[in-house]
Model the fold of this input.
Amino acid sequence: MKKITDYENKKVLVLGLAKSGVSAAKLLHELGALVTVNDFKQFDQNPEAQDLLTLGIRVVTGGHPIELLDEDFSLIVKNPGIPYTNPLVEKALEMKLPIITEVELAYQIAECPIIGITGTNGKTTTTTMIGLLLNAERADGTARLAGNIGYPASEVAEEAKSADDIVMELSSFQLMGIQTFRPEIAVITNIYEAHLDYHGSREEYVKAKWALQKNMKETDFLVLNWNQQELQELSKTTQATIIPFSTKEKVAGAYLLEDKIYYEDEYIMSSKELGVPGSHNIENALAAIVVAKLKHVPTAAIRQTLMIFTGVPHRTQYVGEIAGRKFYNDSKATNILATEMALSGFERSSLLLLAGGLDRGNEFDELVPSLKGVKAIYLFGETKEKLKKAALAAGITEIHLTENVQSAVQDAYEFSEKNDTILLSPACASWDQYPNFELRGDAFIQAMNQLNDKEK
Done:
């Protein structure tokens, strides 16, 4: 990492722990800062704070006392999950105290290029694809995943060498806390309406996403989804060199034409050869192909890598086959749009959909067009009656209400026939029955494995 001296003997407040806060605190301590960590969780239930204390880092736990700001801090490094409406954060903003997120620190110490990926949907899949592509037939260095994908950016940047690339997934929350952050290549997969409870308005949400490119220059590349008119308009306001991708028209980048994928005029592969289904995954692959081409990955390596990529866990992930029935885990589909995208990748006449969970006060009328033609639907959780209404409106004749994901798998399998697909794509949050979408997806896989054991 770069040995910067910017933080020597500076008083810095790290607000909120979790993985990124712990990494930021340790890095700042190593860089000579006088670090105070403040976390809401009580000290006796806070192993992260206990660990930092043993390193000689000051910790304040059990709340976010505004009085901390009397201590003349030079900077706050804020956990992305803490909203700007938090009283301590509001007071810091009033005092014009700089507030950054940990990805800004990562940029400041990184010796190698950073590729930044954001968007409403597809960030994790696209980030993972890019990482795999950049490591295909690589002679020197490694493409390292970082950021919102689960690896603290500052920790990865500390370890990365100059021959590496950091492929960084970035949320809108993280991007609100950047100052000088400048990726060599940036990708925006798409922009839809999301996180309005945090941002307050769609305008502020889009502004946070668009901040990814704010420091980029003509020598940097900004990869944009040309299917979206909004991104076409925004492209007029950046200094970066635009490389578009599209599934609807030929563009000066990556595009889909008659089920074939091209980069500029070069044929890359058939879209049907992609290892993951769905029109949204074609978009993700196009974005990843642009980055791979900009980084000079051979076409044959791109095709081979994307053919064997079967998805990120819980994101339209192929998990196995039993007696001719294929199983896909899309537990990450916690909203209607994500489920619509998943459904677009399957032949509905042989599709059995598992859905339900906790809604956000919404109805499911928007989902009706995507449900039309589905062979059978299995509904669970608090939203099952609402989803039943949508299924009836879509003309689905086989509608089954069941207890949970596990029973849905069992019921769907018993009804299914050879060459059918059983898809978990809930269109809802998991919290009514499962602590998170990962555990819901794990329950789906476990139920499938139990069926497999019985069939053996």
About this structure: The radius of gyration is 23 Å.
